[in-house]
Every structure is written in structure tokens, then in C-alpha cells.
Amino acid sequence: MDLTYTAEEDEFRARLSRWLARTLPELPPPPDPLDWPGRRAYDTGWQRRLYDAGYAGLHWPVDAGGQGATPTQHLIFLEETEKAGAPYVGANFVGLLHAGPTIASEGSAEQRARWLPPVLRGEEVWCQGFSEPDAGSDLASLCTRAWRDGDHYVVSGSKIWTSHAEVADWCELLVRTTPVSGSVPKHRGISWLAMPMDAPGITVRPLRTLAGSTEFAEMFLDEVRVPVSHRVGDENDGWRVTMVTLSYERGTAFVGEVVACRRVLGELAREARKNGRWDDAVLRRRLGHLSAEFAALWRLTQWNVSESQRTGGVPGVGGSVFKLHYSHARQELYEAAADVLGPGALDLGHPWNHDRLSSLSYTIAAGTSQIQQNIVAERILGLPKGR
Ligand SMILES: Cc1cc2nc3c(=O)[nH]c(=O)nc-3n(C[C@H](O)[C@H](O)[C@H](O)COP(=O)(O)OP(=O)(O)OC[C@H]3O[C@@H](n4cnc5c(N)ncnc54)[C@H](O)[C@@H]3O)c2cc1C
Question: Which parts pass through the membrane (predicted)?
């Protein structure tokens, strides 16, 4: 494994950092975190700038509209954009980081041509309709049903925790196309559909989080008609396609945030020096420990990227190790932030407090910590299945 950068990669980094230094001062001020239409406009506007400058879909294959960059260049991109304080991927999260890569790897030529360019240009936003009230960790138990009616599926059921549903144009939707029976195990009758969010029969009811945001929603589907041509992969083969989606979600989707956490850690140390909390040796030790954690996570990221560069495949189970440790380290980071703020931790308007409340969801979203531990136990350590 080689973790050093080549001259070409250094040149790529320098070019990108010059572009960021020129472009970021031109951006409008970021919207209020609770203003979802404003956030959509801001996030897609940033995506358009990336597209115009040749940085959109950097690591996507060229025939999917991407730049065909290596995973290492993508890592450099994430590192430099975070370091420079560029906007977060935001509402484009699902489209760019897992629905898009899934369509690029599993979709037909027509599907790639239809759905990928608008994601890259920041014109269309995607959401993820996987979880249901009784199918989260046990995703294969999902009940949302799809019947064939000519060249359409008719979809009825409900989804929950659908992030960005309020502002999305498309949904990567899992449906049951064959009921579970003695001969059909539950993960064999599932299909992966691209559902237009403006189709009749869809009701989106926003849910308010602890941090006051309506970033996700319940979604009710009442005989929604989705063309059969919107199915990615074969009918009933959606579980395999889903595994591709989840490996992107856990493998690469949170990587840029490690750099952001390292930036916040630096801010905590500066604030502690200013307000006198730095004299507390216990707090200093905590910050030191976190610094080591995030350094290790960054090394793990490089290791995972180096592995996928060597194998040319989708991110492996190393993504679960990353997701498990990252989500806990992030929670510890914002616990430390509350300690640095002291009584200021009661001010819910402070961005660290908003992020602290949001950080609680990280050990649940994209697969809970217990599920990641099961994956690590079974697939990396080779331990027997729990059940
Ligand atoms: C902020 C946020 C955003 C989200 N966004 C989306 C989205 O956009 N689209 C979407 O489809 N979903 C989304 N989700 C849903 C998320 O993927 C699920 O919440 C998650 O998979 C857990 O499922 P569950 O809530 O049904 O909990 P359950 O599966 O009911 O789990 C309850 C508890 O039991 C534990 N548990 C369950 N099974 C096992 C097991 N086999 N071994 C050990 N422990 C186990 C779990 O770890 C957990 O602690 C989001 C969730 C959050 C918090």
C-alpha cells in the first residue's frame, strides 16, 4: 500500500486549491439551516459551479458523465474542499454519493443518460426511500408493494426517515415485487426503482428532528405509477443492487466530513484557549484523544481508497469500520464542544449545538452501529452469525 501522493496528484491539488481560493469569495451567504428550499437552491448552485469548472462527478466513470478521476484524486478533492470551507454536498447527497454511483454501475445506457447528467449539473435532487416503519436494520422485511400493470408498476405502502424528501425530484425506492412465501425468501422479491417525486399518489409529511430541522419525512404511497423502464437491475434483483448502494453510502459518503471534524477540533482548541477552558487538563486530554481518533480515521480512509483503487471495485466492508468509528468520534467531538462552551452549550442557536444534536443521529443513519459491528464481526473477523 502506497499512501504518498504522486507529482500529478500534487499538481491536481494545487490547481483545485487555486480554483477554490478564486471561487469561494464569490458565493452568496449560506441559507438558514431550517430553510429547505433555500438550501436546495444553494447546494445545487454550488454543484453547478463544480460542473462548469470540471469538478463534478470527479470519480464517476467518463461514460457516466464523470471525470474518471482516481479514488485518490477524489480524496484530494474532498480534503481540499473541506479545508477551504467550501459548501457541503447537502441536498445532493443521495444523488451524488449513492443513487448516482449505483445507476452508473447498475443502470442501462438509457438510464445513465437520463438520470446522471442532471445530478452532475445540480438540476435534479434525489432522496432515498429504503426504510419503512418495520424495516430499518432488517431492510429485507420491507412491505411497500409494487404490482405490474402493463408497462407500469403500481406502488402502495409507506416509507420513513426519507431525508430531503421535501425538496427531491427523484427517489431511489425499494419495493416488493414478489410476496414472501415458502419458496421466495424475503430478500429475493425486492426491486430498485427510480420514482419521480411529482407522481400522483405521493404524500410527504415532514418530521421534525431534535435539532428543529425537517430534514427527513414520512412518505405515503397510494397507487403511485412508476414506469417499468425506471427499474434499475432485474425485477426481484433489487437486493443485490441495494448492496451496491449501501457500500457507497457507508464506504465513501461520509469521508469529506472527517476533514470537517478535524477543522472543528482546531476551532475547539482555539476557543478553549480564548475562554480559559484550556487550563483544564482533562479537556486537553479529550481533545488530544479526538485528534488521534480523526488522524486514524483519515489513515483508514486512505487505506480504503487505496484498496478500491487497487481492486477497481466498489468500496469494501472497510466502509463499515469507518462508519462505526466515525459516527462515534463525531458524537464525542460535539460532546467536547459542549464542554468548551460551558453555559454557552445551552444556546441552541450556536452552530456547535445544532451539530451536537444532529450528531446523535449518526450512529443510526446509514445503518446503526450494532449493524456495522455485526458486519465487521461476520465479514472481517469471520465470527459466526448472531442470528
Ligand atoms: C438522520 C437520519 C437520516 C435517515 N435518512 C434515511 C433516508 O434518507 N432514507 C432511508 O431509507 N432511511 C433513512 N434513515 C433510516 C435509517 O437507515 C434507519 O433508522 C436505520 O437503518 C435503523 O433502522 P430502524 O430505525 O428501523 O431501527 P431498528 O432496526 O428497529 O433498530 C432498533 C435498535 O435495534 C438494534 N438492532 C436491530 N437489529 C439488530 C441486529 N440484528 N443486531 C444487533 N442490533 C440490532 C439497532 O442497532 C437499534 O439500536 C435515516 C435515519 C436517520 C437517523
Answer: none
What Cα–Cα distance (Å) separates residue 310 from each residue in 2, 244, 245, 317, 342? 10, 18, 20, 15, 47
Q: What homologous superfamily does CATH list for 251-380?
A: Butyryl-CoA Dehydrogenase, subunit A, domain 3 (1.20.140.10)
Measured distance CA(142)–CA(207) in Å, rounded: 20
CATH superfamily of the 126-236 domain? Butyryl-CoA Dehydrogenase, subunit A, domain 2 (2.40.110.10)
Ligand 1 centroid to Cα of residue 216, in Å, is 14
332 is catalytic: no
Query: Residue 58 has which C-alpha cell?
Result: 470527479
* CB of residue 372 inside a 6 A radius of ligand 1: no
Q: Which atom of ligand 1 is nearest to the CA of 358?
A: 1
Instruction: Name the grid cell of 103.
Output: 445507476
Which atom of ligand 1 is found nearest the CA of 130?
11
Angle at 110 between CA 107 and CA 112, to 5 degrees: 50
What nine digits make up the cell of 172? 431511489
pLDDT tens for the chain, 387 residues long, are 556 789 999 999 999 999 999 999 999 999 987 889 999 999 999 999 999 999 999 888 898 899 988 888 888 998 899 889 899 889 999 999 889 999 999 999 999 999 999 999 999 999 999 999 999 999 999 999 999 999 999 999 999 999 999 999 999 999 999 999 888 899 999 999 999 999 999 999 999 988 788 889 999 999 999 999 999 999 999 999 998 888 776 656 677 788 889 989 999 999 999 999 999 999 999 999 999 999 999 888 888 877 777 776 656 677 888 889 999 999 999 999 999 999 888 888 888 998 899 899 999 998 899 999 999 999 889 999 865
List the domain boundaries for the chain: 7-90, 126-236, 251-380
